[in-house]
Write a structure and sequence with these properties.
Blueprint: H1 2-20, H2 37-48, H3 56-63, H4 65-93, H5 99-106, H6 111-145, H7 153-164, H8 177-200, H9 223-229, H10 236-242, H11 248-277, H12 293-325, H13 334-353, H14 358-384, H15 391-418
Length: 420
């Protein structure tokens, strides 16, 4: 009898070791763990930095340089806190952890809300990428090639989606690491180009620079945009699943690297462009750029950023939409993934050509989905987790939760105020 149980015991030990050992390439369910720290960093940073960076110069105009920097740091800090809380909860669930499963285990009645929040956030951000591309690509084509059929916004958008569409069908984020790297490099070059313009290009509009702006109702609508810009939480679970070494110290190191890099890029881009254009700066700062060679390079690079960012939003958008429409369906089912991905692409394209504005997307997504994902859900799930909780982290979680409630309330009030 004893010998008959030995193989089962060894099998269980092997599975247990497979889940915990960082050097193994597969785990339960055949999860591939080939993602390195560098790959995870690039993917998560590119998920965080997207269309939100364009609004930072205007945010510095709204709040002033010093206040804007302070709010960027505060939002980044609480974003880090949310990511760490998710990482802690993921350690308890193993490599198969997802945001939906975490909700099911911790607070089952919130699972549908969680899935819808992630879907709404990712769908809205993916839509914003297509809207920006539809605005920038025709201008770039006309500048380089003159007026042609491709300079029509709708045709250029169709050509754009034809190029990036195949990447959206990938199931693993690790397969997007090279496109993500291209996006990160493009963002860095855009910031360097902004610095070059600031140093070498004569600028006529430099008036109205404010370092501290008095408190006003205009402040309320921008809090959600700061949080929106640090939202990469929907992909932390996929990174945790695919990382070779997904121990908590390793995950914390990854989170610190991503958040600090994003904050430096946001502050640099925001301050430099605000100093360039002053009170004339627009919500989409690329609209301030003249039609010269440097501006064409920046627009071209930013289109690259939009192209590599779109699949990173479609991936979790698809997963959580599948959870909503078919909770019992396995997420890996190929045909369902194909149908849902195609539906997301078509619907975002149709909304982009309808003329929907970026402002409403930033306001609604930043006020609702991003705030819940970054600030409110992490604290709630951590409070309900059956783990040892250090007092300091509990206190910070309460503060982060209250900050999330404040951002949500202020942003919603601002939306209502501007639509009355």
């Amino acid at each position: 009898m004893r010998s008959s149980h030995t193989p089962n015991k060894h099998l269980l030990l092997a599975f247990s070791s497979n889940l915990k050992h960082p050097g193994l390439k597969t785990g339960l369910g055949g999860v591939n763990m080939a993602t390195t720290l560098a790959s995870g960093y690039v993917t998560l940073l590119k998920t965080s930095i997207g269309s939100g960076i364009l609004s930072f110069p205007y945010l510095f105009k709204t709040y002033g340089i010093l206040t804007g920097i302070a709010l960027t740091v505060i939002s980044g800090f609480f974003s880090v806190l949310g990511l760490i809380l998710y990482a802690i909860c993921s350690q308890e669930l193993g490599r198969t952890a997802t945001l939906s499963r975490l909700a099911t285990e911790s607070m089952p009645y919130t699972r549908m809300i969680v899935d819808f929040s992630v879907f709404l956030k990712c769908f809205g951000v993916a839509l914003s990428y297509l809207i920006i591309t539809r605005q920038l690509l025709p201008v770039l084509i006309e500048t380089i090639f003159g007026v042609s059929m491709l300079s029509d916004p709708n045709i250029s958008l169709l050509a754009f989606i034809s190029c990036i569409g195949p990447f959206t069908y990938f199931n693993r984020l690790d397969r997007l690491k090279y496109t993500s790297l291209c996006g990160v490099v493009a963002i860095v070059v855009v910031v360097v180009a902004t610095l070059y313009r600031y140093e070498h290009t004569p600028v006529t509009t430099t008036s109205g620079i404010e370092y501290l702006v008095p408190l006003s109702y205009a402040w309320m609508g921008g809090f959600g945009k700061f949080v929106f810009s640090f939202t990469c939480h929907q992909n932390i679970f996929a990174i945790h699943s695919e990382m070779e070494d997904n121990s908590l110290p390793r995950m914390k190191r990854l989170i610190y690297m991503v958040a600090s890099s994003a904050a430096v890029i946001y502050i640099s881009f925001g301050v430099l462009n605000y100093l360039l254009y002053g009170e004339a700066v627009k919500d989409n700062v690329l609209e301030n750029y003249p039609n010269d060679i440097l501006a064409s390079v920046v627009r071209g690079l930013y289109i690259v950023v939009m192209g590599v960012s779109y699949p990173l939003q479609v991936n979790p958008c698809r997963s959580h939409l599948i959870n909503i429409i078919s909770p019992s369906q396995k997420p890996g089912e190929k045909f369902l993934r194909f149908v849902v991905t195609t539906a997301i692409i078509i619907s975002t394209c149709l909304l982009a050509v309808s003329g929907m504005g970026l402002g409403i997307i930033y306001s609604v997504i930043g006020a609702t989905a991003s705030t819940f994902m970054c600030l409110i859900f992490p604290a709630l799930f951590y409070f309900n987790a059956n783990i040892t909780k250090p007092r300091g982290l509990v206190i910070l979680s309460y503060v982060g939760f209250l900050f999330g409630v404040f951002v949500f309330s202020a942003s919603v009030f601002s939306i209502i105020l501007h639509n009355i």
